[in-house]
Design a protein that fits this description.
Blueprint: H1 3-20, E1 51-54, E2 68-74, E3 83-85, E4 94-96, H2 98-104, E5 108-125, E6 131-147, H3 148-156, H4 159-164, E7 168-169, E8 174-192, E9 195-221, E10 228-239, E11 243-246, E12 249-252, H5 257-263, E13 267-279, E14 284-298, E15 302-313, E16 319-322, E17 328-331, H6 339-349, E18 353-355, E19 359-362, E20 365-376, E21 379-390, E22 393-404, E23 410-419, E24 422-434, E25 437-443, H7 446-450, E26 457-468
Antiparallel strand pairs: 1-5, 1-26, 2-5, 2-26, 3-4, 5-6, 6-8, 7-9, 8-9, 9-10, 9-13, 10-15, 11-12, 13-14, 14-19, 14-20, 15-18, 16-17, 20-21, 21-22, 22-23, 23-24, 24-25, 25-26
Length: 481
């Protein structure tokens, strides 16, 4: 298998990752005021119902499948930019189109995702419109930034750079994956008739983390010997019992170790959500929200591998090998170049200093700025700006929405968003109340769900809540702030 095939497998794995690790996307949800989960993105929102209970604690009615949230975002390319059906004689065959991929790859490809599972959600509203909320959740957040120079290195080789005496600068390369428990307590109140504010304090308990911290990383090729020299100033950090580095090299534990990570409570962190909404006139309102301002200190099973300096890679040894049938073949010795051996080689190559040491990571933080116009009693329009701060990058999104509470039991929502450098993102949301149960489903990109191979954004959120104290005569649009 050549290098291009290895890269293809890696990219395909990144594209398939959202189907394994799902996450929350919240632009259309922001104005679904009949679903109290909208408070996860705007804590200043006051729910209509006096009491709401959600999460896995709810009986199986409405929990098929269980309440879930998922999101995947890639600001650069999608699956059909790598593999697609050809033309002419190849119209029935999949074609590997690496030139098209290189055209679509941006200066920095950002891949983001999050999985969130709510075990318990509770909301209680007093007669004075003060709201108390409690949630217990598990979350998994991952993110990756890949410089275009790295794609160029693997897909086009290093000849052009070598002849020009240039190096591949991949200092923007980063990876992070964190899993943690979250216990949140929030409070929202109306300071005045037109102004409400809210805040949520969240206590975090880290389950596991693997992340990088790269200050400098460049690759250059010797024009005579073709050795590759790396100039590095970076760290690889981990806090998990699934693998570790000791005197014998890298060793991997079985998945049973994951049980210990799930029960660990030693990696403690804090986070904060803040929000405010102000009604300018009877028809116009604005809102501001900031979520996940926080960090986690990783103390258990934590190691930091540091490398700083210049290191030279002289290549991989090839040779003849004999299989079980006694036949000779030429290539890489798979027994020697297995995962643990590769990890050991990286440590030796970069002369990494590995220490048992704690470290801290920051959560991806989001900023929401919204505005609404109440066109009719049952119809309103919304505008939302969302910015995400994560690992020295800032991703921006814009959403326009139409929101309608048609009856006291049914609300519909439609949206258009500029997400991940694409404009074809049509979202939809629905909530329906039957008796004391409210079902809801929402996505920011319907097309992405139908044609995932052509999507840079794939997300959906659905579930149900038990609701008590609903006001049947309330028919105003969901853009109420």
């Amino acid at each position: 298998m050549n290098m291009k095939n290895y890269v293809l497998i890696l990219i395909a794995a990144l594209l398939l990752l959202p189907f394994v690790s799902k996450a929350q996307q919240a632009n259309t949800l922001y104005y679904m005021d009949r679903v109290f989960q909208s408070q996860t993105v705007n804590i200043a929102e006051i729910p209509e119902n006096r009491i709401q209970i959600g999460g896995l604690i709810i009986p199986l009615v409405g929990q098929l499948p269980p309440a879930f949230y998922f999101n995947y975002g890639n600001n650069s390319f999608h699956y059909n930019h790598i593999l697609h059906f050809g033309e002419g004689a190849k119209k029935d065959s999949l074609v590997l189109d690496l030139p098209l991929l290189m055209k679509k790859v941006r200066r920095n490809t950002c891949i983001r995702g999050e999985f969130r599972l709510d075990y318990f959600n509770f909301s209680y509203k007093t007669k004075n419109n003060a709201v108390i909320t409690v949630n217990l959740s598990d979350r998994f957040i991952y993110g990756m930034t890949i410089p275009k120079s790295l794609f160029d290195f693997f897909l086009n080789g290093n000849r052009e750079y070598m002849l020009e005496g240039r190096s591949h600068d991949i200092s923007k390369l980063s990876f992070g994956a964190s899993a943690f428990h979250e216990l949140g307590v929030g409070f929202t109140t109306e300071i005045r008739e037109k102004l409400s504010v809210g805040g949520r304090m969240k206590l975090l308990f880290g389950i596991a983390d693997v992340s990088t911290k790269v200050s400098n990383l460049e690759l250059s090729t010797d024009p005579d010997m073709y050795f590759i020299t790396a100039s590095a100033d970076m760290q690889i950090r981990k806090s998990t019992g699934l693998f570790e580095y000791n005197d014998d090299g890298f060793s991997f534990s079985d998945l049973g170790q994951l049980t210990g990570d799930l029960a660990a409570l030693g990696n403690v962190g804090l986070a904060l959500d803040l929000g405010a909404r102000y009604k300018i006139t009877d028809k116009i309102a604005v809102s501001l929200s900031v979520t996940d301002l926080g960090f986690i200190n990783w103390l258990q099973n934590s190691q930091i591998a540091s490398a700083k300096g210049e290191y030279t890679f002289e290549g991989i040894e090839l040779g003849f090998k004999e299989n079980e049938e006694g036949k000779l073949s030429f290539g890489i010795d798979e027994n020697r170049y297995n995962l643990e051996h590769v990890m050991d080689t990286i440590v030796e190559l970069f002369e990494m200093d590995i220490r048992d040491k704690s470290y801290m990571t920051w959560l991806p933080s989001n900023i929401y700025v919204g505005a609404t116009y109440q066109f009719h009693e049952k119809l309103g329009f919304g505008f939302l700006y969302r910015g995400e701060i994560y690992r020295k990058t800032y991703n921006q999104q814009v959403t326009l929405s139409v929101n309608s509470n048609l009856t006291h039991w049914l609300s519909l929502h439609a949206s258009w968003s500029l997400l991940n450098n694409t404009i074809l993102n049509l979202g939809a949301g629905l909530s329906a109340r039957l008796g004391f149960v409210t079902w809801f489903i929402v996505t920011d990109d319907v097309i992405g769900l139908v044609f995932p191979q052509r999507a840079k954004t794939i997300n959906m959120r659905m579930g149900c809540n038990l609701t008590i104290g609903h006001k049947k005569k309330v028919l105003k649009s969901a853009t109420r702030l």
